[in-house]
Inverse folding.
């Protein structure tokens, strides 16, 4: 179900309730302005320590904001008092042995007592800060998903989790890229400053017009591509780990929390 104007006006708690009841299954981009949205990863407890270690070793693509208080606990009290990770996202992805097998709207039938959830920072937070400063976000202007690319930059492995960095790209004029670096440096818990700008081939991207994930966007004359570490990176690490069973959010279908974006900024 796509979002309508009444959805965009909902509070974080109301959006989670709508997802929980099945009344909302659309993407969360543009929802609950001012509040943090999170990527979600759920793994069996025997792999939780290794995944947490992967996040600690790779904080740019995997900024960890909250973890289940204990195995099997469906809450994330650090992010909202009534959150249930089984039901409160509009759509999920089910992974078996590294393969995507389904996109359910809840995890009630699949939830096990050894599951551990991880909430990771999302680029929606720093995009809001960039827009507030008057910078254009091209994928928002063109109403498409942000372009994302596999790079040749290896992440630090942890246990079965490994893979190369995935980046998202937003084209900007050089002066705007400098301003974006200044702004995003204040948000290390949602990917922080860009990891590269300019020549894409230097990080292993052969054709910037052909993203590995998301959609292509226009790069105008006088603009340069600016690349941020991307939350798809842990999904690639999950594919490589080939766990018997794991879950993530479906792209664009985030966990909307009660935490404010302003509260993430380092002054």
């Amino acid at each position: 179900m796509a979002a309508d104007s009444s959805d965009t006006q909902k509070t974080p708690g109301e959006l989670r309730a709508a997802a929980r009841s099945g009344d909302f299954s659309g993407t969360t981009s543009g929802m609950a302005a001012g509040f943090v949205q999170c990527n979600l990863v759920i793994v069996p407890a025997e792999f939780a320590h290794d995944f947490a270690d992967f996040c600690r070793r790779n904080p740019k693509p995997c900024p960890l904001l909250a973890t289940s208080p204990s195995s099997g606990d469906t809450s994330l009290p650090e992010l909202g008092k009534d959150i249930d990770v089984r039901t409160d996202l509009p759509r999920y992805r089910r992974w078996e042995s590294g393969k995507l097998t389904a996109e359910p709207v809840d995890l009630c039938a699949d939830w096990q007592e050894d599951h551990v959830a991880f909430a990771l920072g999302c680029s929606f937070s720093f995009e809001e800060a960039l827009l507030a400063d008057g910078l254009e976000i091209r994928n928002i202007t063109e109403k498409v998903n942000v372009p994302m690319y596999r790079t040749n930059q290896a992440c630090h492995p942890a246990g079965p989790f490994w893979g190369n960095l995935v980046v998202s790209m937003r084209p900007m004029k050089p002066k705007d890229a400098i301003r974006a670096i200044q702004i995003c440096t204040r948000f290390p818990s949602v990917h922080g400053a860009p990891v590269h700008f300019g020549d894409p081939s230097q990080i292993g991207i052969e054709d910037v017009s052909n993203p590995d994930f998301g959609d292509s966007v226009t790069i105008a004359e006088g603009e340069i591509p600016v690349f941020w570490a991307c939350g798809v990176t842990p999904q690639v690490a999950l594919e490589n780990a080939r766990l018997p069973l794991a879950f993530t959010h479906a792209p664009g279908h985030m966990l909307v929390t009660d935490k404010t974006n302003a509260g993430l900024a380092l002054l």
About this structure: The radius of gyration is 18 Å. The chain has two domains: 5-122+242-264, 124-233. Residues 5-122+242-264 form a domain with the PSTPO5379-like fold (CATH 3.40.1640.10). The chain has a mean pLDDT of 92.
